[in-house]
Amino acid sequence: MHFARLRLSGFKSFVDPTDVTIEPGLTGVVGPNGCGKSNLVEALRWAMGENSARRMRGQEMDDVIFGGTTGRAARNLAEVTITLDNADRGAPGWDHADSIEITRRIERGTGSDYRINGKLVRARDVQLLFQDNASGPASPALVSQGRIAAMISARPAERRQVLEEAAGITGLHSRRHEAELR
Ligand code: ATP
Ligand code: MG
């Protein structure tokens, strides 16, 4: 499965409804400092179930809701929808669906809820979609700005481990190791 589309509304700096198509292959997001590039990546992580406000660069989860600027009032709602292309039937438990829409919505003071293809679900159901260790909000494939410097100064063996986790092949190595022991 892969990301096909990202829609945001009231999320961080994306106060107006924003719809981003993600084509297969490499996608670059470019723009001046502070224009919202990291916020887009955070929107992906948030909709996949990120539950730490600190990892969303906030004090509390309500901080993901548009907080207002000079001339624009704060909002009370934020919503992010990810569309997953599931043509390869890679999503666990979703053998019948060509595409999967995950929506997370938060209302100021009342917390957030999740929907999959329009149906209210538990946070756990969203986590189950991303249960392999290469995807989801804690995926090592998502390298935050702060971690880039740490990766550069890491020892080669550590760096290799991060890359293998990101590529989702760590499990293959341990299974091969098991096979060699037999
Ligand atoms: P850089 O190139 O410096 O990494 P960036 O494009 O990654 O910048 P972001 O960090 O995504 O930029 O966006 C930062 C902007 O988002 C800031 O202007 C900040 O005020 C704004 N922002 C973050 N949270 C909110 C919020 N809740 N409400 C309104 N604006 C917000
Ligand atoms: Mg950034």
**What is the average per-residue confidence, as pLDDT, rounded to a whole number?**
91
Major sheet: order of its strands? 2-1-3-4-5-6
Calculate Rg over CA atoms. 18 Å
Helical percentage: 25-40%
Domain module count: 2
Low-confidence stretches are: none
The CATH topology of the largest domain corresponds to Rossmann fold
CATH homologous superfamily of the largest domain - what is it? P-loop containing nucleotide triphosphate hydrolases
Following the backbone from N to C, one meets helices and strands in this order, namely EEHEEEEHHHH
Q: Measure the end-to-end span.
A: 33 Å
* Number of helices, counting only DSSP H or I runs of 4 residues or more: 5
Apparent shape: globular
Name the CATH class of the largest domain.
Alpha Beta
Biggest sheet character: 6 strands, antiparallel
The count of strands amounts to 6
Q: Using the 3D structure, state the CATH architecture of the largest domain.
A: 3-Layer(aba) Sandwich
Subcellular location: Cytoplasm
Protein name: Chromosome partition protein Smc
Function: Required for chromosome condensation and partitioning.
Binding site for ATP: 32-39
Structure commentary:
The structure is a single chain. The chain is α+β, with helices and mostly antiparallel strands and 182 residues long. 28% of the residues lie in helices and 21% in strands. The protein has five helices and six strands, in the order ββαββββαααα. It has helices at residues 37-47, 123-129, 145-153, 156-167, 170-181, and strands at residues 2-9, 18-21, 77-85, 99-107, 111-116, 119-121. A hairpin with a 2-residue loop joins β5 (111-116) and β6. It is globular and about 65 Å long. Residues 37-38, 145 line the site of magnesium ion. Homodimer. Required for chromosome condensation and partitioning.
